[in-house]
């Protein structure tokens, strides 16, 4: 059987994270199905022996297809190791208050869906100035300036700690292998 890796994304960085996680899972010996959470297609969670969801925070919440998917499939998700990679910029902040806010997003998703996510990794996202339209670029530059972040809008800025992500994905792969043997 296979591990299902699903992602939601607005500007593409969480897809990059999901692709990276999928490659890491494959390197750990898992077969992987990677898909967009809006179009999981035949990827019915009950047919997989592990599910990894990667989702970004935009204006204080995950894109709505994430809660929709978790709500619809929570019974199947409860049967296999399930994990969430929560992507945000606040988790990268120097302010403990901002980081605490980022750390609280998975609990909000749990409250909304009634599903407890057993394993969560917080990954710092990216400022994709080259992808944003004029207004979004101005908004994100203002937020970055306030936070002491980068304001060079001539390029994108990536904050993800890929090694920390790899360690989390390896733990998840071990959980899947263990559950499969049980
Ligand atoms: C319009 C907008 C709103 C955002 N709102 C938040 C937010 O409320 N909290 C946060 O921590 N990050 C926020 N971010 C940062 C995103 O989580 C980060 O850029 C992430 O890498 C986006 O992932 P994606 O490229 O997969 O959409 C926001 C980004 C944008 C562009």
UniProtKB/TrEMBL annotation:
Report the domain of life of the source organism: Bacteria
Q: Which Pfam families match?
A: Flavodoxin_5 (PF12724)
Single Gene Ontology BP annotation: heme biosynthetic process
Organism expressing this protein natively: Hoeflea halophila
What name does the UniProt record give this protein?
Menaquinone-dependent protoporphyrinogen oxidase
Q: Which GO terms describe its molecular function?
A: FMN binding; menaquinone-dependent protoporphyrinogen oxidase activity
Q: Which InterPro entries match?
A: Flavodoxin_dom, Flavoprotein-like_sf, Protoporphyrinogen_IX_DH
What SUPFAM superfamilies does the entry give?
A: Flavoproteins (SSF52218)
- Where the record annotates domain Flavodoxin, the positions are 4-153
């Amino acid at each position: 059987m296979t591990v299902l890796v699903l992602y939601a994304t607005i500007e593409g960085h969480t897809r990059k994270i999901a692709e990276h996680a999928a490659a890491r899972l494959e390197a750990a010996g898992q077969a992987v199905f990677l898909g967009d959470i809006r179009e999981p297609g035949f990827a019915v969670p009950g047919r997989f022996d592990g599910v990894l969801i990667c989702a970004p925070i935009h204006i204080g919440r995950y894109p709505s297809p994430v809660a929709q998917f978790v709500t619809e499939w929570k019974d199947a998700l409860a049967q296999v190791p399930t994990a969430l990679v929560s992507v945000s910029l606040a988790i990268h902040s120097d302010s403990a208050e901002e980081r605490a806010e980022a750390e609280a997003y998975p609990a909000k998703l749990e409250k909304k869906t009634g599903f407890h996510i057993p394993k969560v990794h917080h990954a710092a996202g990216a400022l994709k100035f080259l992808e944003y339209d004029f207004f979004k670029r101005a908004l994100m530059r203002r937020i970055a300036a306030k936070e002491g972040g980068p304001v060079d809008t001539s390029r994108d800025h990536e904050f993800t700690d890929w090694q920390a992500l790899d360690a989390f994905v390896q733990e998840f792969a071990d959980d899947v292998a263990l559950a499969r043997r049980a």
